[in-house]
Structure prediction request, 366 residues.
Amino acid sequence: MALALTELTVSHFRSHKLARMALDGRPVALYGPNGAGKTNILEAVSLFSPGRGMRRASAAEMTRRPEALGWKLSGLLDVQGCRSEIETWSEGGAARQVRIDGKAASQIDLGKLARVVWLMPAMDRLWIEGAEGRRRFLDRVTLSFDPSHAEAALIYEKAMRERNRLLKEQVRDAHWYAALEAQMAETGHRIHTARLGALAQLRAAQEQAETAFPSAELELVQSEGDMPESAQDLLEALAENRFRDLAAGRTLVGPHRSDLYGVFAAKGVAASECSTGEQKALLVSLILSNARALAAQVGAPPILLLDEVAAHLDADRRAALYDEICALGAQAWMTGTGPELFAELGDRAQSFVVNDAGDGSTVTPA
Prediction:
Protein backbone atom coordinates (compact mmCIF):
# COMPACT_ATOMS: atom_id res chain seq x y z
CA MET A 1 0.00 0.00 0.00
CA ALA A 2 1.73 3.18 -1.16
CA LEU A 3 -0.66 6.06 -0.37
CA ALA A 4 -4.17 5.43 0.92
CA LEU A 5 -6.71 6.34 3.53
CA THR A 6 -7.39 3.35 5.79
CA GLU A 7 -10.02 5.07 7.92
CA LEU A 8 -12.27 8.04 7.24
CA THR A 9 -14.67 9.77 9.62
CA VAL A 10 -16.91 12.57 8.35
CA SER A 11 -18.81 14.65 10.91
CA HIS A 12 -21.44 17.34 10.18
CA PHE A 13 -20.06 17.79 6.69
CA ARG A 14 -22.51 18.68 3.90
CA SER A 15 -25.30 16.06 3.94
CA HIS A 16 -23.42 13.70 6.28
CA LYS A 17 -24.11 13.97 10.02
CA LEU A 18 -21.71 11.11 10.75
CA ALA A 19 -20.07 8.59 8.42
CA ARG A 20 -17.30 6.14 9.23
CA MET A 21 -15.50 4.08 6.63
CA ALA A 22 -12.91 1.32 7.16
CA LEU A 23 -10.73 0.97 4.08
CA ASP A 24 -8.05 -1.46 2.93
CA GLY A 25 -6.23 0.53 0.24
CA ARG A 26 -8.13 -0.85 -2.76
CA PRO A 27 -10.06 1.52 -5.05
CA VAL A 28 -13.37 2.67 -3.55
CA ALA A 29 -16.65 2.51 -5.49
CA LEU A 30 -19.48 4.65 -4.10
CA TYR A 31 -22.88 4.16 -5.67
CA GLY A 32 -26.41 5.33 -4.98
CA PRO A 33 -29.08 7.66 -6.36
CA ASN A 34 -28.34 11.19 -7.50
CA GLY A 35 -28.32 13.62 -4.59
CA ALA A 36 -27.56 10.93 -2.00
CA GLY A 37 -24.25 12.48 -0.94
CA LYS A 38 -21.62 10.54 -2.93
CA THR A 39 -19.77 13.61 -4.18
CA ASN A 40 -19.75 15.00 -0.63
CA ILE A 41 -17.58 12.04 0.41
CA LEU A 42 -15.16 12.77 -2.45
CA GLU A 43 -15.07 16.44 -1.43
CA ALA A 44 -14.23 15.37 2.12
CA VAL A 45 -11.30 13.28 0.85
CA SER A 46 -10.14 16.22 -1.33
CA LEU A 47 -9.65 18.21 1.88
CA PHE A 48 -6.82 15.88 2.85
CA SER A 49 -4.80 18.07 0.46
CA PRO A 50 -4.14 21.84 0.55
CA GLY A 51 -6.74 24.34 -0.61
CA ARG A 52 -10.50 24.63 -0.66
CA GLY A 53 -11.23 21.17 -1.98
CA MET A 54 -12.68 19.95 -5.25
CA ARG A 55 -15.68 22.30 -5.14
CA ARG A 56 -13.60 25.33 -4.11
CA ALA A 57 -16.17 26.06 -1.39
CA SER A 58 -15.67 28.17 1.72
CA ALA A 59 -15.46 26.42 5.09
CA ALA A 60 -18.88 27.85 5.99
CA GLU A 61 -20.48 26.36 2.87
CA MET A 62 -19.33 22.86 3.82
CA THR A 63 -21.11 22.70 7.17
CA ARG A 64 -24.21 20.54 7.57
CA ARG A 65 -27.49 22.45 7.65
CA PRO A 66 -29.53 23.49 9.53
CA GLU A 67 -27.25 22.96 12.56
CA ALA A 68 -24.29 24.87 11.08
CA LEU A 69 -22.13 23.75 14.00
CA GLY A 70 -19.00 23.45 11.91
CA TRP A 71 -17.51 20.23 10.55
CA LYS A 72 -14.67 17.81 11.15
CA LEU A 73 -12.89 15.23 9.02
CA SER A 74 -10.40 12.72 10.36
CA GLY A 75 -8.58 9.81 8.84
CA LEU A 76 -5.64 7.47 9.00
CA LEU A 77 -3.33 7.99 6.04
CA ASP A 78 -0.83 5.30 5.09
CA VAL A 79 2.14 6.78 3.22
CA GLN A 80 4.53 4.07 2.03
CA GLY A 81 4.22 2.07 5.22
CA CYS A 82 4.08 5.01 7.64
CA ARG A 83 0.73 5.87 9.22
CA SER A 84 -0.36 9.41 10.06
CA GLU A 85 -3.52 10.61 11.77
CA ILE A 86 -4.98 13.59 9.92
CA GLU A 87 -7.65 15.91 11.29
CA THR A 88 -9.08 18.99 9.60
CA TRP A 89 -12.03 21.02 10.77
CA SER A 90 -13.82 24.35 10.82
CA GLU A 91 -15.83 25.95 13.61
CA GLY A 92 -18.40 28.65 13.01
CA GLY A 93 -17.39 29.16 9.39
CA ALA A 94 -13.79 30.02 10.31
CA ALA A 95 -10.88 28.99 8.08
CA ARG A 96 -10.16 25.30 8.36
CA GLN A 97 -7.46 24.04 10.67
CA VAL A 98 -5.20 21.02 10.30
CA ARG A 99 -3.65 18.66 12.81
CA ILE A 100 -1.20 15.87 11.91
CA ASP A 101 -0.49 13.23 14.55
CA GLY A 102 -1.97 15.47 17.23
CA LYS A 103 0.09 18.55 16.34
CA ALA A 104 -1.08 21.73 14.63
CA ALA A 105 0.10 21.80 11.02
CA SER A 106 -0.12 23.97 7.92
CA GLN A 107 -1.82 23.06 4.67
CA ILE A 108 1.62 22.96 3.05
CA ASP A 109 2.58 20.26 5.59
CA LEU A 110 -0.54 18.39 4.52
CA GLY A 111 0.43 18.75 0.85
CA LYS A 112 3.85 17.23 1.51
CA LEU A 113 2.20 14.19 3.08
CA ALA A 114 -0.85 13.53 0.88
CA ARG A 115 -1.22 14.06 -2.85
CA VAL A 116 -4.84 14.11 -4.07
CA VAL A 117 -5.89 14.56 -7.72
CA TRP A 118 -9.48 14.80 -8.97
CA LEU A 119 -11.73 14.83 -11.99
CA MET A 120 -15.35 15.94 -11.74
CA PRO A 121 -18.18 16.69 -14.20
CA ALA A 122 -17.73 20.47 -13.82
CA MET A 123 -14.33 20.03 -15.51
CA ASP A 124 -15.85 18.48 -18.66
CA ARG A 125 -16.07 21.94 -20.26
CA LEU A 126 -12.45 22.74 -19.42
CA TRP A 127 -11.33 23.08 -23.05
CA ILE A 128 -14.24 25.24 -24.24
CA GLU A 129 -14.71 27.70 -21.40
CA GLY A 130 -12.48 30.51 -20.11
CA ALA A 131 -8.75 30.46 -19.45
CA GLU A 132 -9.27 30.83 -15.68
CA GLY A 133 -10.56 27.26 -15.38
CA ARG A 134 -7.59 25.88 -17.33
CA ARG A 135 -5.14 27.86 -15.16
CA ARG A 136 -6.85 26.46 -12.06
CA PHE A 137 -6.60 22.93 -13.48
CA LEU A 138 -2.91 23.38 -14.27
CA ASP A 139 -2.25 24.89 -10.84
CA ARG A 140 -3.82 21.85 -9.12
CA VAL A 141 -1.53 19.61 -11.19
CA THR A 142 1.44 21.83 -10.33
CA LEU A 143 0.52 21.83 -6.64
CA SER A 144 0.54 18.02 -6.65
CA PHE A 145 4.22 18.13 -7.67
CA ASP A 146 5.19 21.20 -5.62
CA PRO A 147 3.21 21.84 -2.38
CA SER A 148 4.75 25.33 -2.06
CA HIS A 149 3.09 26.40 -5.34
CA ALA A 150 -0.09 27.47 -3.50
CA GLU A 151 1.86 29.83 -1.23
CA ALA A 152 3.51 31.55 -4.23
CA ALA A 153 0.12 31.90 -5.92
CA LEU A 154 -1.46 33.45 -2.80
CA ILE A 155 1.36 35.99 -2.40
CA TYR A 156 1.16 36.89 -6.09
CA GLU A 157 -2.65 37.29 -6.05
CA LYS A 158 -2.56 39.47 -2.93
CA ALA A 159 0.12 41.76 -4.37
CA MET A 160 -1.72 41.97 -7.70
CA ARG A 161 -4.99 42.92 -5.97
CA GLU A 162 -3.19 45.78 -4.21
CA ARG A 163 -1.54 46.88 -7.46
CA ASN A 164 -4.88 46.77 -9.27
CA ARG A 165 -6.41 48.92 -6.53
CA LEU A 166 -3.71 51.54 -7.10
CA LEU A 167 -4.31 51.37 -10.86
CA LYS A 168 -8.06 51.88 -10.46
CA GLU A 169 -7.43 54.83 -8.18
CA GLN A 170 -5.10 56.25 -10.86
CA VAL A 171 -2.13 56.44 -8.50
CA ARG A 172 0.90 57.40 -10.60
CA ASP A 173 3.69 57.66 -8.03
CA ALA A 174 6.19 54.86 -8.86
CA HIS A 175 7.12 54.44 -5.20
CA TRP A 176 3.67 53.03 -4.41
CA TYR A 177 4.22 50.25 -6.94
CA ALA A 178 7.83 49.25 -6.29
CA ALA A 179 7.40 46.79 -3.40
CA LEU A 180 4.25 45.22 -4.88
CA GLU A 181 5.85 44.73 -8.29
CA ALA A 182 8.96 43.20 -6.71
CA GLN A 183 6.74 40.65 -4.92
CA MET A 184 4.80 39.95 -8.12
CA ALA A 185 7.97 39.51 -10.16
CA GLU A 186 9.55 37.05 -7.73
CA THR A 187 6.45 34.92 -7.11
CA GLY A 188 5.18 35.28 -10.70
CA HIS A 189 8.41 33.81 -12.05
CA ARG A 190 8.17 30.96 -9.52
CA ILE A 191 4.59 30.24 -10.60
CA HIS A 192 5.48 30.23 -14.30
CA THR A 193 8.54 28.03 -13.79
CA ALA A 194 6.59 25.54 -11.66
CA ARG A 195 3.81 25.33 -14.27
CA LEU A 196 6.34 24.64 -17.03
CA GLY A 197 7.93 21.96 -14.85
CA ALA A 198 4.56 20.31 -14.26
CA LEU A 199 3.81 20.26 -17.99
CA ALA A 200 7.21 18.67 -18.67
CA GLN A 201 6.44 15.92 -16.16
CA LEU A 202 3.02 15.30 -17.73
CA ARG A 203 4.60 15.05 -21.19
CA ALA A 204 7.21 12.58 -19.98
CA ALA A 205 4.56 10.46 -18.25
CA GLN A 206 2.45 10.39 -21.42
CA GLU A 207 5.39 9.41 -23.62
CA GLN A 208 6.41 6.53 -21.36
CA ALA A 209 2.93 5.05 -20.91
CA GLU A 210 1.00 2.40 -22.76
CA THR A 211 -2.58 3.53 -22.38
CA ALA A 212 -6.00 3.22 -23.95
CA PHE A 213 -6.51 6.95 -23.56
CA PRO A 214 -5.37 9.63 -26.04
CA SER A 215 -2.30 11.77 -25.47
CA ALA A 216 -2.53 15.54 -25.37
CA GLU A 217 0.09 17.97 -26.58
CA LEU A 218 0.13 20.74 -23.99
CA GLU A 219 1.51 24.24 -24.21
CA LEU A 220 1.44 27.22 -21.87
CA VAL A 221 0.58 30.36 -23.83
CA GLN A 222 -0.08 34.02 -22.98
CA SER A 223 -3.26 35.88 -23.88
CA GLU A 224 -0.97 38.39 -25.60
CA GLY A 225 2.78 38.64 -26.08
CA ASP A 226 5.23 36.39 -24.26
CA MET A 227 5.76 35.68 -20.58
CA PRO A 228 8.99 37.38 -19.38
CA GLU A 229 11.71 34.76 -18.95
CA SER A 230 13.14 35.84 -15.58
CA ALA A 231 11.99 37.59 -12.40
CA GLN A 232 13.99 40.66 -13.45
CA ASP A 233 12.36 40.66 -16.89
CA LEU A 234 8.92 40.45 -15.28
CA LEU A 235 9.78 43.28 -12.91
CA GLU A 236 10.81 45.46 -15.84
CA ALA A 237 7.70 44.48 -17.82
CA LEU A 238 5.42 45.46 -14.94
CA ALA A 239 7.11 48.87 -14.72
CA GLU A 240 7.04 49.41 -18.49
CA ASN A 241 3.37 48.39 -18.73
CA ARG A 242 2.22 50.64 -15.90
CA PHE A 243 0.88 53.34 -18.22
CA ARG A 244 -1.14 50.80 -20.21
CA ASP A 245 -2.31 49.12 -17.00
CA LEU A 246 -3.49 52.50 -15.65
CA ALA A 247 -5.69 52.90 -18.71
CA ALA A 248 -7.10 49.39 -18.28
CA GLY A 249 -7.41 49.58 -14.50
CA ARG A 250 -5.77 46.15 -14.10
CA THR A 251 -2.49 44.28 -14.59
CA LEU A 252 -2.06 43.04 -18.16
CA VAL A 253 1.19 41.10 -17.89
CA GLY A 254 2.11 38.11 -15.72
CA PRO A 255 1.24 34.46 -15.06
CA HIS A 256 -2.41 35.36 -14.45
CA ARG A 257 -2.61 35.96 -18.22
CA SER A 258 -1.43 32.44 -19.07
CA ASP A 259 -3.59 29.80 -20.70
CA LEU A 260 -3.25 26.04 -21.20
CA TYR A 261 -3.54 25.04 -24.86
CA GLY A 262 -4.20 21.38 -25.61
CA VAL A 263 -4.17 19.36 -28.82
CA PHE A 264 -5.47 15.80 -29.38
CA ALA A 265 -2.05 14.48 -30.43
CA ALA A 266 -3.12 11.58 -32.67
CA LYS A 267 -5.42 13.79 -34.73
CA GLY A 268 -3.62 17.12 -34.51
CA VAL A 269 -6.91 18.76 -33.53
CA ALA A 270 -7.24 21.43 -30.83
CA ALA A 271 -8.90 20.02 -27.71
CA SER A 272 -11.50 22.79 -27.91
CA GLU A 273 -12.61 21.42 -31.31
CA CYS A 274 -12.81 17.76 -30.26
CA SER A 275 -16.05 15.90 -29.54
CA THR A 276 -17.39 15.80 -25.99
CA GLY A 277 -16.24 12.19 -25.65
CA GLU A 278 -12.75 12.99 -26.91
CA GLN A 279 -12.46 15.93 -24.51
CA LYS A 280 -13.44 13.66 -21.61
CA ALA A 281 -10.93 11.02 -22.72
CA LEU A 282 -8.19 13.68 -22.86
CA LEU A 283 -9.00 14.77 -19.30
CA VAL A 284 -8.89 11.18 -18.04
CA SER A 285 -5.56 10.77 -19.83
CA LEU A 286 -4.12 13.86 -18.12
CA ILE A 287 -5.27 12.72 -14.67
CA LEU A 288 -3.66 9.31 -15.24
CA SER A 289 -0.47 11.00 -16.51
CA ASN A 290 -0.45 13.18 -13.38
CA ALA A 291 -0.73 10.04 -11.26
CA ARG A 292 2.06 8.24 -13.16
CA ALA A 293 4.34 11.29 -12.92
CA LEU A 294 3.74 11.58 -9.17
CA ALA A 295 4.44 7.88 -8.71
CA ALA A 296 7.79 8.43 -10.46
CA GLN A 297 8.56 11.59 -8.46
CA VAL A 298 7.57 10.62 -4.91
CA GLY A 299 7.39 6.85 -5.15
CA ALA A 300 3.61 6.57 -4.82
CA PRO A 301 0.62 7.51 -6.97
CA PRO A 302 -1.79 10.08 -5.54
CA ILE A 303 -5.25 9.37 -4.20
CA LEU A 304 -7.56 9.79 -7.21
CA LEU A 305 -11.09 11.23 -6.96
CA LEU A 306 -13.17 10.44 -10.04
CA ASP A 307 -16.70 11.79 -9.74
CA GLU A 308 -19.23 10.19 -12.13
CA VAL A 309 -16.39 9.28 -14.50
CA ALA A 310 -17.74 5.80 -15.32
CA ALA A 311 -21.06 7.09 -16.66
CA HIS A 312 -19.34 8.93 -19.52
CA LEU A 313 -17.17 6.05 -20.71
CA ASP A 314 -18.19 3.03 -22.75
CA ALA A 315 -17.59 -0.44 -21.29
CA ASP A 316 -14.20 -0.92 -23.01
CA ARG A 317 -12.85 2.47 -21.90
CA ARG A 318 -14.24 1.88 -18.40
CA ALA A 319 -12.44 -1.47 -18.17
CA ALA A 320 -9.24 0.16 -19.47
CA LEU A 321 -9.51 2.91 -16.85
CA TYR A 322 -9.96 0.41 -14.03
CA ASP A 323 -7.04 -1.68 -15.29
CA GLU A 324 -4.76 1.38 -15.34
CA ILE A 325 -5.84 2.46 -11.85
CA CYS A 326 -5.12 -1.00 -10.46
CA ALA A 327 -1.80 -1.25 -12.32
CA LEU A 328 -0.78 2.06 -10.77
CA GLY A 329 -1.74 0.81 -7.32
CA ALA A 330 -3.74 3.98 -6.71
CA GLN A 331 -6.57 4.29 -4.23
CA ALA A 332 -9.19 5.78 -6.57
CA TRP A 333 -12.50 6.96 -5.13
CA MET A 334 -15.21 6.70 -7.79
CA THR A 335 -18.91 7.52 -7.80
CA GLY A 336 -21.78 6.21 -9.90
CA THR A 337 -25.52 5.60 -9.71
CA GLY A 338 -25.36 1.80 -9.71
CA PRO A 339 -23.06 -1.20 -9.12
CA GLU A 340 -23.12 -2.16 -12.81
CA LEU A 341 -20.82 0.80 -13.55
CA PHE A 342 -18.10 -0.89 -11.48
CA ALA A 343 -18.67 -4.49 -12.61
CA GLU A 344 -15.34 -4.61 -14.45
CA LEU A 345 -13.50 -3.96 -11.18
CA GLY A 346 -14.82 -7.09 -9.50
CA ASP A 347 -13.15 -7.71 -6.16
CA ARG A 348 -10.34 -5.28 -6.98
CA ALA A 349 -12.40 -2.54 -5.27
CA GLN A 350 -14.31 -1.92 -2.07
CA SER A 351 -17.93 -0.91 -2.65
CA PHE A 352 -20.18 1.29 -0.51
CA VAL A 353 -23.82 2.27 -0.92
CA VAL A 354 -24.69 5.91 -0.27
CA ASN A 355 -28.34 6.77 0.42
CA ASP A 356 -30.40 9.72 1.59
CA ALA A 357 -32.13 8.58 4.78
CA GLY A 358 -34.28 11.70 5.02
CA ASP A 359 -32.36 13.32 7.87
CA GLY A 360 -29.01 12.95 6.13
CA SER A 361 -26.81 10.67 4.08
CA THR A 362 -25.79 7.16 5.07
CA VAL A 363 -22.75 5.17 3.89
CA THR A 364 -22.78 1.40 4.26
CA PRO A 365 -20.55 -1.37 2.86
CA ALA A 366 -22.14 -3.04 -0.18
Observations:
- The chain has two domains: 1-115+300-366, 127-277.
- The mean pLDDT is 94.
